[in-house]
Amino acid sequence: MNYILDFIAGLKSLPAHGLTALGLLLLYAIESEIRFGAKARTMAAGPADRWSTIAVSFASGVPVIGFIFAMRGNNSAFLRALPLWLRDPNTMPGMPVIAWMGVGLGGMGLLLRLWALLTLRQRYTRTLRVDEGHFVERGAAYRFVRHPGYLGSLLCLNGLGLASGNVVVFLATLVATIAAYTYRIHVEEEMLVAAFGASYERYQREVPAVLPFLR
Questions:
Q1: CB-CB contact of 153 with 31 (8 Å)
Q2: Which CATH class is domain 15-206?
Q3: Neighbouring residues of 153: CB distance < 8 A, sequence distance ≥ 6
Q4: Residues 117-134 pLDDT 10s
Q5: 87-90 — which CB contacts under 8 Å span 24+ positions?
Q6: E strand or H helix at 173, and its extent?
Q7: Average pLDDT by stretches of 10, the chain with 215 residues
Q8: What contacts 88, CB < 8 A, 6 or more positions away?
Q9: How far apart are CA 94 and CA 89, in angstroms?
Q10: Residue 90 DSSP one-character state
Q11: Whether the Cβ atoms of residue 195 and residue 128 lie closer than 8 Å to each other
Q12: Within 10 Å of residue 156's Cβ, how many Cβ atoms?
């Protein structure tokens, strides 16, 4: 019972933007588990994946851990051993407005990821794979960018980094996620060109990778 009361007290001690960002983080975790079909859910990676799933998984942990450090660092005897620059939730200029902007970006990212998931359904896989019946999707969000799910993840994770209010956490998140998703996209594009040939190469020429209107 005391553990539950301590947990509730910990939640109440969070600022409003921190509590909202925590809700977004939980929704992101739930959404990440939604897959249609056993092939989409499997973590068994083939040679085309080239460790990219591991890379994005580790990158996703950077904002999550950093957010915990920033939100709970001054209230936990264990985390107070960390340097202040890593656990201070107010080193970002323009707080708390900048944190709320991060929450807004995170919410947009969640919706974009959900749009991509519901569009691809069985083709929205955990690891990089092309199965029988897969084809080049050019509808819905895929009219605007080739990788809307990844754009959604980048918005969610970096929005969480902003919501932490800590400059170091945000910069670390930015570097980790951009590096991991750049590699992921590079590997995936090679796989898709090998699988679909000229049709995917035409899609590459006509639609930007992650930033609309920027080829």
A1: no
A2: mainly alpha
A3: 56, 60, 109, 113, 177, 181
A4: 999 999 999 999 998 889
A5: 87/166, 88/165, 88/166, 89/15, 89/18, 89/164, 89/165, 89/166, 90/165
A6: helix 167-196
A7: 49 83 94 92 90 96 94 78 86 94 97 97 93 92 97 98 96 98 98 96 96 76
A8: 70, 73, 74, 165, 166
A9: 12
A10: T
A11: no
A12: 29
Contact call for residues 86 and 78 (beta carbons, < 8 A): no
Structure tokens at 135: 């084809």
Domain ranges across the chain = 15-206
List CB contacts of 190: < 8 A, sequence separation 6 or more. 48
Cα 112 to Cα 88: distance, rounded to the nearest angstrom = 30
Cut 0.85: pTM above it: yes
